[in-house]
Amino acid sequence: MSVPSPKIDRPTVLIVDDEPANVQVLGEALTGQCDVRFTTRADDAVMLAARFNVDLILLDLVMPDRSGFDVLAALKADPACRDTPVIIVTAMSDLLDEEAGLSAGAVDYITKPFNPSIVRARVRTHVELKRQRDQLAALADLDGLTGIANRRRFDQQLDLRWRQAARSQGRLALVIADVDHFKQYNDYFGHGPGDQCLRAVAEALRSAVRRADDLVARYGGEEFALILGTDELERQLSGLLRAVATLALPHPRSTSGDIVSLSLGAIEVAPTSGRGPDHGLSAADALLYAAKNEGRNRGVCRLLDGSEARIVNPGEPNDDHTY
Ligand SMILES: [Mg+2]
Fold first, then answer.
1. Helix/strand/coil for 295
2. Ligand 1 centre and the CA of 52: distance in Å?
3. What's the CA-to-centroid distance between 176 and ligand 1, angstroms?
4. CA-based end-to-end distance of the chain
């Protein structure tokens, strides 16, 4: 199973401290271990943390334009850096400040004057913990059988992209696809080959999508769900059907062909804030049922203008290499 790998290069650490001398000493302590970014302006901390996708933040508490506690609250409120560990570095040795910092979400606390090797060790520990958390989070988003995104991931992404598209007046395409007569495939070959079939279909669908932010997910059982761009949607859908046909997996119990095939329903949508993603999903689902009723091994797609397109499986790749 492939797991999206977290950054394996050197971690990036952001130092936020109004005193250039402190920035310099901290930066020198981390030289060779981390890529160091810094700012002496507290107001820039959130923007820089998000822009450089930093792995850890060393945050001063006493700064003229904004307190470290304010910066910490702003970091925790921003989805882009909410999970980035923050170590407070400050001259304030008051235990109450330490408690306040930790309860506001800092992972650790270093008091000045600091020992460079302790700074290095603590940074290393928290970067490693962050990477382990990221790895677990990535695993929680994957379907255990096929290694593609799972339903949880799909639902999260759909919600996010639906709202983005509603804001930017963008469009997206939703696809629900079903392996034809999969129960009969399992009954005939057994569950082991049934699992192999689902893995092969998942890989075929994943290889058939073109854009980096296209999403292919296992929605449950033999059902897959996709979020695609809307350009040349019918050709994209043909490509999905063909990708599965190209596997040429024999299916002696299918009444819609002699190999494993797919039925799919697809809808082009221009999300609005008034209607949620469930609306798009149930429309795609209804179109999937139309495709099944019309004989399976095909797709039915509703475009934004309300017109419906029938997509017949183009079969094995031919000479034109369009797909
Ligand atoms: Mg300061």
1. coil
2. 22
3. 54
4. 27
* Contact predicate 255/181, CB 8 Å: yes
Question: Does residue 193 have a cis bond before it (omega within 30 degrees)?
Answer: no
- Residue 50's identity, in one-letter code, is A
Return the biggest CA–CA distance within the chain: 76
pLDDT of residue 113: 84
Pairing mode, strands 223-228 and 12-16 = unpaired
Distance of CA 128 from the midpoint of ligand 1 (Å): 27
Specify the CATH superfamily of domain 151-312: Reverse transcriptase/Diguanylate cyclase domain (3.30.70.270)
- Under 8 Å between Cβ of 179 and 146: no
Domain boundaries, the chain: 12-140, 151-312
Write down the pLDDT at residue 168: 92
Q: Phi first, then psi: what are they for 11, rounded to 5°?
A: -70, 150
Pairing of β 172-179 and β 223-228: antiparallel
- Residue 101 alpha carbon to ligand 1 centre in Å: 15
pLDDT of residue 316: 57
Cβ–Cβ < 8 Å for 219, 175: no
User: What is the Å distance from ligand 1's center to 17 Cα?
Assistant: 6
Blockwise average pLDDT, block size 10, the chain, 323 residues:
56 95 93 94 93 94 90 90 91 72 86 89 94 88 94 94 92 97 95 95 96 94 97 95 96 92 97 89 97 96 94 65 43
Residues marked as catalytic: 222
Q: What is the per-residue pLDDT for 104?
A: 83
The superfamily in CATH containing domain 12-140 is Response regulator (3.40.50.2300)
Ligand 1 center to residue 77 CA distance, Å? 22
Counted residue by residue, the chain has a size of: 323
